[in-house]
Amino acid sequence: WGLLLLAAALGGAAAARCPSPCVCDNLRAHVLCLNGSLVAIPDSIPELTKKLDLRGNSFSVIPAGAFLATPYLTHLDLQHCKVERLEEGAFRGLGRLVYLNLASNSIALLYQESLDGLSSLQQLILEGNRIEEIQPGAFGHLGSLTVLDLRANALVYLPDMVFQGLQVLRWLRLSHNTLHVLGSEAFAALPALRRLSLDHNELQALPGEALARLDGATRLDLGHNPITYVAEEALAMASLRHLFLDHASLQDVAPDAFSRSPRLRMLDLRENQLRGLPPLAGAGGLARVSLHGNPLLCSCLLRPFHSWLARARVQAEGACAAPPALRGRPLDSLKPPEMRCGRLRPPLSPSAPTERPRAASGRRCPRGCVCSPDFRHGSCANRDLREIPWDFPGDTRLLDLRRNAFGTVPPDAFPGLKELVSLHLQSCAIRVLQAGALRGLESLVYLYLTDNLLSTLAAAAFEGAPRLAYLDLDRNAFTHVPAGAFQLLPHLISLHLQHNAVRELAEGDLAGARGLRWLYLTGNAIGHVSPAALAPAKMLEKLQLEGNRLVEVPTAALRGLSALSELKLSRNPIKRMGDSVFLPVASSLQHLYLDNMGLEQISPHAFAGLGPKIRSLYLESNKMSNIPNMSNFTGLEILNLQDVPFHCDCQLLPLHRWINKLNLRVGATCGSPPEARGRKVKLSTTFQTCPGWGRGETGEANPETTAASKPSKKKRSGKSPARGFNKSRA
Known about the structure:
The protein is built from five helices and 43 strands. By secondary structure, it is mainly beta.
C-alpha cells in the first residue's frame, strides 16, 4: 500500500507540473505543446518525460542548458519553431535522446558545440533550414548517429572532414541544396555510410575524389545535377550497387567510367541528353541500365553498345528517338541490321573537363595565426590585428579573421588565395571595403561582414569574386541598399541586410542580382517598397521584411516573383489588408507570416488566389475580430491564431465549424461578447443559438475532446494528432 500511495503521489505531482499550454500523458511520459505561443522552453515539464513535442512555437534561440530539467528525453520535436540559433550546449544533459527533429526552422550556422551532449542520438533532422555553413567539429559528439538529414538548406560548399565523428552514420541526406564545391576529404570520416543523397544540387562534375573515400556506400543519388560528362575511372566506390544520375545534363559517358566500381548493379541515366553510349565494359557486374527520356540515335553507331548489352546480359530500358523509322522502338526489340547509318553524322561528345591544378601551399602561416593543413583552414580570430595578414597557404579554403580592428579592407587584401571558399570578417570595425578588395578570390562563395560599420559599398567592391553566392551584411550602418554593388555578382543566392537602418527598397537597388533566392531585410526602417524594386530578382524564394515600417502589403512589388514561397511581414504596422493583396504570388506562396502587426481588419477577399499550397499561416497577436473564409486552405500544417480578440457571434460560426474540422491546435479564443471572453472559439457554446446550428456539428458536449480522441481519417505527413491524451493543466 505504501508503494501504491507513493506512486499516486508522484503521478499527481507530475500532473500538477504540466505547463498550461501543453497536454501531458503521464502514463506514457509524453508531452505535447503544439502550435502555441511559447517563446521559451517551459520549465515545468515533468522530469520523467520521454517524448516532448514542441512543434509550431516561437523560440528563436535554444539557449544553453534548455533541457537540463528533462534528462530522460528520448524524442524531441522542434519543427516549425522559428529557431534561428542553437547556442553552444543547447542540448547538454540529453544523453538519452535518440531522435531530434529541427526541421523547418531558420538555423543558418552550426557551431562546434551546438550539438554537444547528444551521445546517444541516432536521428538528426535539419531539413528545411537555411544552413549555409557547417563548422568543423559540429558533429564531433554524435558518435551514435545513423541518419543525418540536411535536405533543403543553403549549402554550397562542404569542407574537408566536415562530418568527422560520425563513425556509425549510415544515411547522409544532402538533397536540395546548392552544392557545387566538395572538399576532397569531405566524406573521409564516414566508415559506416551506406547511402548518400546528393541529388538536386549544382554539381557540374562527378566529385570522384571526395566519393572515393566511401568504401562501404551501396547507393549514391546524384540526379538533378548539371553534370555533362562522366570521365574515365570517374567513380571508385568499391561497394556501390545503385547509382542514380537521372535528370542531369549528361552528353557522354566514358567506356571505363565505372571500372573502379565493380559491384555496380543498377545505373539510372534517365532524362539526360545522351544520343548514345559506348560499351561499358568496365562495369562487369551491371545488370540494368535505364535510359528513358534520352534522345537516343539508334544508328550503326549504337551497335557496339547494343551488342555489349546482349553479351553482358544487361537489361536496358529506353527507346529510340531517331531515325524516324525507329522512333519509339524499345532498345531490347532492335536487331543489328535495323541500326543503319546512311548519312547520319555521329554525335559530338564533349571533351572531359580538365581539373584545375591546385595552388602551391608551401608558404608559412602568418605569425600569431593558426593554419590547419588537414582542413585547409586559417584563423587569426580575436588577435586585435590592425591590418589583414597575407601570408596564408595558397590552398586555404576557409579564413577566419573575426573580432579584429581592421577598419578598412584595402585593394588586393588577400593575394594568392585563389582556392578560398569562405571568408569571415565579422566584428572587425570595418568602415570601408575598397574597390578590388576581394580581387583574386575567384572561388569565394561565402563572405561574412556582419557586425561592422559599413554604410555604403563601391560598385567595384566585389570585383574579382564572381562566384560569391552568400553575402552577410547584417548589423551594419546601411541607410539604403548599396545599389550597383551586386552587378558583379551574377551567382548571388542569399543576401542578408538585417538590422541596419534601410528606409526604402528602391528601383535599381538589386540590379544585377538575377540569381537571388533569399533576401533578408528584417529589423530595418523600410516604409516603402518600390513596385520595381524586386524586379531583377525573379528567382526570389524567400522575402523577409519583418520588423520594418510598412503600412501596407507591397503587392505591386510582388508581381513577377513566381517562385516566392515564403513571405514574412510580421511586426510591421499594417492595420488594414485590402482585396487580393497576395494575388501576384498566390500560385507559389507556402509560408505567410502576418503576426504581431496590430492588424485590425482583413478584407473578405484579402487571401484571393491562396489555397491548398499554403502550409503555414501566422496571424497571432493582432486586433481583428474576424478573418476571411479559408476553407480552401486544405494543406495547412500550422495555423496560429493566438491572442486575436475574436467576436464570437453568429458571423463567426463558419470559422468555428472550420476550426473544429482542422487537425491542428490553432489557439483561437473569444475576445467578446463578455460571456464568451477567454473561451476557445472551438469550444464556445455561444454558437448554439445561431440559425443553422446542428447542421455539421458533432453534437458532443466537448468537440475538442472528441476531435482528439477520434482517429483522423486523413493521414498528414509529419504530424501526430493528440489522440488519447489526459489533459493535465497547472
